[in-house]
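Chapter review. Work through the record for Heat-inducible transcription repressor HrcA before attempting the end-of-chapter questions.
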Amino acid sequence: MTDTSKILTELNARSREVFRRVVEGYLESGEPVGSRTLTRTLSEKVSAATIRNVMQDLEYMGLLDSPHVSAGRIPTQRGLRMFVDGLLEVSELDATDREKIDATLGANSRDVGSMLDRVGSALSGLTAGASLVLAPKHEAAIKHVEFVSLSPDRALVVLVFADGHVENRVFHPPMGQTPSSLREAANFLNAIAEGRTVSELRESFEAEVKKRRQELNDLARDFVENGAAIWENEGDRYERLIVRGRANLLGLEQEAEGLERIRNLFDDLERKRDIAEFLELTDEGEGVRIFIGSENKLFSLSGSSLVVSPYMNADRKIIGAVGVIGPTRLNYGRIVPIVDYTAQLVGRLISDQG
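Structure tokens for Heat-inducible transcription repressor HrcA:
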């Protein structure tokens, strides 16, 4: 049992309802919720003084905070986490939201890149937040590998896939390359790569090289081991990160300090600084996950929340993710089903293409 779950079970019915009403009121209005407001909405008729005492207890427990000199309370990050884990009521996906997502994905869905661009635009539009979409690497079987020398310290690897897709990648080969070493390295890679995806080749590459290294001369072996751009960026399983709707976040923030934090967030995303932190979120299994404020390194400085869900291919392998970034005052109950449905739909469409 987590710390927040334990606290939730220890709250009595009145404290739990006061806490829930404060959080729901804050998420709806963005304003502190006062005791007089709660006297009109609580199921139990109690005085404002009694509610203030309960709110003070909740504040002492670290679940509520009183900003400035206001008599009202807002939830802390810890309080939001407890609410999301134990009290959040996730609504059914609204029929209008479903229709907008379906319409966005339905057009020309054979082009995965364009489809994911539309997904990002749809998510940011529906949620009034910023959307993130992790696009998968191309996972068709390799048909042919070829190396082209560009200069003494630069070379090009051409990957031709069985479905006709072609990728060109520049890398730095070992010094002393010759036309014969390029041919020998390409022949070796074609022997072990044909019919495999890039991921499959990466997994078996070291074993194959070790088993067949006697087939290569020293220069070609160095070329294969150090210069093959197929696995040069090991761990980079995604083609790109698509960010849409950043203006939504900038428009919500009025203070200069907050604007600067959000600009820094998007600058980091553009440069993919610390992006491994985000990629790791998709390795925890399927289902929607919610990260609030400092719970995730990438978003802690901007004080943002992230609702994210991975999507899978036909083999139930996680190949990407879709998510929404917004202020901690997100409508989690509405956004969770939107992200969940979108991730499942994207996974099905990509699986159907495969």
